[in-house]
Design brief:
Helix content is about 45%, strand content about 15%. By secondary structure, the chain is of the alpha/beta class. The protein has a domain at about 5-140 and about 170-195 and about 260-270: Rossmann fold, CATH 3.40.50.720. Bound molecules: NADP nicotinamide-adenine-dinucleotide phosphate (NAP).
């Protein structure tokens, strides 16, 4: 079974390829999809690399020729409308090539988070496309909190407007392992999995950090206005600061608060606990 992975030069795509190889999946059947073929060949020399640009439907259709299953790793395009076009190009190419499965990395409660708009539209497009699909709604990668962790290490307070909102934290590599498993296992199609683990609010995240770092860590709760101003002072552009502040407010209102044992089902084991994950990240 030939499996394609988009964004193979990125963290997530690369982790998935690494996991497939580690699991002993035949490297002849792993195809990396990248806009920069040379970069991808250097990074993963053991697999076939095909040129694929999210913004070029024709090229994407060619890149997916002869593949059975593809992982569409959601893009980082900040403009939601452009991001939707990038994702739908892959879905159109999947349909054109009669793929037997398209796996899409979405986000937790996409309808409740402004960052989830493109995820929601992509899910809708995929569900009405007739392409067999599996959607993985990933909660936060722990890596997203690296800035907070770095502040704690530097004895600076962690500053947030998330309040008592809860969110799940797991290593990006574990979400990637779950995605790799979905690509090679015979699972039921047209399913949505909620990948979430270690649900915490900021106070619990900070007390876990204190245990790992073995020192006190200060937490400062601020308002949405203060958060937006602080980001702008940190040279984050106005629209991004506004979007990130709103996304945090959505988490405060429950957009990250997802409980499910889907992660365990797809990994075949419990995801690592938060303390262990933070330690692994700091190694
Ligand atoms: N749940 C969470 O907490 C969380 C956090 C962060 C991100 N995410 C999501 O996860 C995704 C993957 O994250 P990541 O860390 O792996 O991102 P990353 O390391 O920045 O990788 C992005 C990949 O997309 C490729 N790419 C960008 N534009 C492209 C285009 N027009 N055509 C083809 N390829 C293109 C990049 O290729 P080049 O190497 O050529 O640039 C790279 O391979 C993100 O895009 C985001 O949607 C989720």
């Amino acid at each position: 079974m030939k499996i394609g992975i988009t964004g193979v030069t990125g963290h997530f795509g690369y982790d998935v390829v690494k996991d497939l190889i580690n699991q002993g999946y035949n490297t002849k059947n792993i195809i990396g999809l990248a806009r920069n073929v040379e970069k991808a060949k250097k990074q993963v020399p053991s697999i076939e690399i095909r040129k694929a640009d999210f913004d070029n439907l024709e090229l994407m259709e060619k890149a997916l020729q002869g593949l059975d299953r593809v992982l569409l790793v959601s893009t980082k395009e900040p403009d939601p409308q452009k991001r939707i076009v990038q994702h739908t190009n892959v879905i159109k190419a999947a349909k054109h090539n009669h793929l037997s499965l398209l796996v899409y990395t979405s986000g937790t409660k996409p309808d409740q988070n402004p960052l989830g708009f493109a995820h929601m539209k992509t899910e809708e497009f995929l569900q009405s496309s007739s392409v067999p699909y599996i959607i993985l709604r990933n909660n936060y990668y722990l890596e997203v909190k690296l800035n907070d962790i770095q502040r704690a290490i530097n004895n600076q307070p962690i500053v947030t407007n998330v309040g008592k909102g809860k969110f799940g934290l797991a290593l990006r590599s574990e979400y990637a392992q779950a995605a790799a498993n979905v690509l090679i296992k015979p699972l039921a199609i047209n399913q949505t999995y909620n990948l979430t683990a270690n649900l915490v609010d900021y106070a619990t995240f900070v007390s876990t950090l204190e245990k790992v770092l073995n020192k006190p860590v200060k937490l400062k709760n601020i308002t949405d206005d203060e958060m937006e101003k602080a980001m702008i002072n940190n040279r984050i552009s106005d629209p991004v600061a506004s979007l990130m502040t709103k996304a945090n407010a959505a988490i405060r209102n429950g957009a990250g608060d997802e409980v499910s044992d889907d992660f365990k089902k797809l990994l075949g084991r419990q995801p690592k606990g938060l303390e262990e994950s933070i330690k692994a990240l700091l190694k």
